[in-house]
Amino acid sequence: MRDALFARIEEKTDDLVDLTRKLIQIPTINPPGEDYVGCAQYIGERLRGRGFDIAYVRGEGTPGDSDRFPRMNVVARREGAGPGSCVHFNGHIDVVEVGHGWTVDPFAGVVKDGKVFGRGACDMKGGIAASIVAVEALMEIRPDFPGAIEISGTVDEESGGYGGVAYLAKEGYFSKPRVDHVIIPEPLNVDRVCLGHRGVWWAEIETHGRIAHGSMPFLGDSAIRHMAAVMERFEHDLYPHLATKRTDMPVVPEGARQSTMNINSIHGGLSEDFDGLPSAVVADSCRLVVDRRYLIEETYEEVRDEVVDLLEKLKHNRQDFRYDLKELWSVPPTMTDKAAAVVRAVAGEIEAVLGRPAEYVISPGTYDQKHVARIGHLKDCIAYGPGILDLAHQPDEYVGIDDLVASTKVMAASAWALLTGEVA
């Protein structure tokens, strides 16, 4: 079975590369959410031709959804010949902006040096193509497969996934008894099983002052100086404290195996779009956004309280210090058990295909597994796919053709093991 399946996938290499190129050539840039409908329909019509039932599901009312930029998802399902598990491959169709520094057309799907180049090549249109070809090859070799196979192309992963997997999860698309196992072909390297991700807490801190003439700042109160005091406490108190927090989660890269916090943005005084000679005023407001990534050993309350306690001490010790804290977003860490069927199936096939044991990793940032676990309450979910993690969102992003083929073999054989329950 495995030998015949792998041989069929090798025969389909040109089709795999062509599908990857065609998906890249649909510029699904998010924001604003361009060409979601066209990409969803392209995937849907291909799979309809392979006998799948197709549903187009719009994430109505979700962030960014509009008649001009509808949050359109596609879900394809093919019932097998008898009872068995349902295996679902989920890939996000949106890509980030192009940016500068490209040496090839980012939406041409250029093939050279054994690689397919383009925005989204590794993150994650190569992964979508690999999952589609994996399933097609499996059905050609074993048209009598048991259970059910699903493939979805979903939107907005790059901006939180709320119009995509989160919306579908609320509608029951990622819960038992409909689905048993989920594989998300994110680009975390072809020999890795990604078990989950760190947690995230985003918040906006605003410090308040009093406006006055800039030539007489002593008559006002600078919110920017108050924010400078916050940042000084970050540098001397919070950052050293975070550096002491280490995890047993196998997070990659190594630097992410501790708690981290990024200052995402800071705005104070005149707006950034002002062009001209500034007016002479003391800033009465300054806003700072923090992006805190935390570990499975920490709690949301602990993460939040570390910042609140720091601000409260400043309020007590610094004259006229006033602040507001607005929580923007929070997602807890998630980590699938290594004993889960989907983990064992994919890890076993990585070793069979590549001839070396799989590496187990945790992503430093979140991806759509958070919605499958938190909203769908489905724990048998991992990320596995082609592509090198470090190339995501970079200029001249690419996916290696050898990696595409290898990951397609892993996904196809893993699906068979899960459908039949023949997981070692």
Question: Could you please describe the fold and organization of this structure?
Answer:
This protein is an alpha/beta fold and 424 residues long. It has two domains: 2-197 and 333-420, 3-Layer(aba) Sandwich (Aminopeptidase), CATH 3.40.630.10; 199-331, Alpha-Beta Plaits, CATH 3.30.70. 33% of the residues lie in helices and 22% in strands. A hairpin with a 2-residue loop joins strand 4 and strand 5 (115-117). The radius of gyration is 24 Å and the shape is elongated.
Q: What secondary-structure arrangement, pairings included, does this model have?
A:
Elements: H1 2-11, H2 13-24, H3 36-48, E1 53-58, E2 72-79, E3 86-92, E4 111-112, E5 115-117, H4 121-141, E6 148-154, H5 165-170, E7 181-184, E8 192-197, E9 199-208, H6 223-243, E10 260-268, E11 285-294, H7 300-317, E12 323-331, E13 334-335, H8 341-354, E14 359-363, H9 369-374, E15 381-383, E16 398-400, H10 401-420
Parallel strand pairs: 3-6, 3-7, 7-15, 8-14
Antiparallel strand pairs: 1-2, 2-6, 4-5, 5-16, 8-13, 9-11, 9-12, 10-11
Helix pairs in contact: 1-4, 1-10, 2-4, 4-10, 6-7, 8-10
Task: Based on the model shown, name its key terms.
Aminopeptidase; alpha/beta; 424 residues; six-stranded mixed beta sheet; Alpha-Beta Plaits; 22% strand
